Amino acid sequence: MPELPEVETIRRDLTKLAIGERIVDVWVDPATAPLLLDGSPEAFREEVCGRRILRIDRRGKYLLFRLDDGRTWATHLRMTGRLVWRRSDAPPEPYERAWVRFESGHDLRWCDLRKFGRWRLISCDDEVLGQLGPEPLDPSFSAEALASMLRGRRAPVKAVLLDQRRIAGLGNIYADEALFAAGIRPDTPAGSLEAAAVRRLHEAITDVIRRGIERRGASFRDYVDANGEEGAQQMYVQVFRRTGKPCYRCGTPISRIVVGGRSTHFCPHCQPQAGQAERVR
DNA sequence: CGTTACCTGAAA
DNA sequence: TTTCAGGTAACG
């Protein structure tokens, strides 16, 4: 569920709450443990107990807890994961699968209805992040960088945007929203985009990601921030999950197709097929 | 490349 | 009952 803006919101929240905290205990639901961890819960507990959290970073959709022994507790929330900060005496959250307890009397509660989330304890970022493409808000993600990753590809442009090895952090919501903002049909072959369309897409990507962070993420179903509060971005989406509803710009009903195996939403009027004369706007 | 599988519901 | 789900990894 969480894409870059949602993970970044959690990172910022937890940076205010958990920096300097010492881990004193860890619990993992035995039924979830084989899916969540590489090794046993006991081994993980032994490894992190006594460590302090020095810093929290994010790369793509990974949240990275830097520990005081040089190692990193890397987490990925996948579809339904939540990380919420609670007092240790607070009742369990819905679908709570694990927690990390701190000296101050607080827990990080790991909740995950579908159990797709993953934890790794790593010594080197490459173990988990080696294949990730550039951050969309990093200067290295230029319009020219985007152009070169689209060039010559026949795959739908949306499939390229979702490929974490090309750009790190875009998911289904922000890919659809960026393509709407750029006026590009999601199933357009990536390599067929003209230079002007690529430039619009580059600006649209950085724009929707920035706004998503400003609005503290999109809460359609499962996402909440580190305090358990919903984000606001779902109130501002133009196409995502608006199938059949009128486009805010032109009134045409929003279409839904499947691209790259994912549900895909677009306005057939504002996002015409590439090469099909002039866009409206 | 596009599907299928991983899990457990929630919504239609 | 059937479909759908903010993500990836494995498979053909």
Under CATH, the homologous superfamily of the largest domain reads MutM-like, N-terminal
CATH architecture term of the largest domain = Alpha-Beta Barrel
Quickly give the structural class: alpha+beta
Order of helices and strands: HEHHEEEEEEEHHHHHEE
Straight-line distance between termini: 31 Å
Please write the CATH class name of the largest domain: Alpha Beta
Biggest beta sheet summary: 4 strands, antiparallel
Query: If you compute it from the alpha carbons, what radius of gyration comes out, rounded to the nearest whole angstrom?
Result: 20 Å
Gross morphology is: elongated
Q: Count the strands?
A: 10
Helix amount, in percent?
Answer: 25-40%
The mean pLDDT is 96
Count helical runs: 8
Number of domains: 2
| Strand coverage percent | 15-25%
Q: Give start-end ranges of low-pLDDT stretches.
A: 277-281
Question: What is the strand arrangement across the widest sheet?
Answer: 1-6-7-5
CATH topology of the largest domain: the name is: N-terminal domain of MutM-like DNA repair proteins
Task: Summarize the structure in words.
With 281 residues, the chain is α+β, with helices and mostly antiparallel strands. It has two domains: 4-129, N-terminal domain of MutM-like DNA repair proteins; 143-266, Helicase, Ruva Protein, domain 3, CATH 1.10.8.50. It contains eight helices and ten strands. The protein has helices at 4-18, 33-36, 41-48, 126-129, 143-150, 157-162, 172-182, 195-214, and strands at 23-28, 53-59, 62-67, 72-76, 81-87, 96-102, 106-112, 118-122, 255-259, 262-266. The strands form three sheets. The chain has a four-stranded antiparallel sheet, covered by helices on one side. A four-stranded antiparallel sheet has the order 2-3-4-8. The chain has a two-stranded antiparallel ribbon with strand order 9-10. A hairpin with a 4-residue loop joins strand 3 (62-67) and strand 4. Helix 1 (4-18) packs parallel to helix 8 and helix 5 (143-150) packs across helix 8. The two termini are 31 Å apart. Residues 277-281 have low confidence and may be disordered.
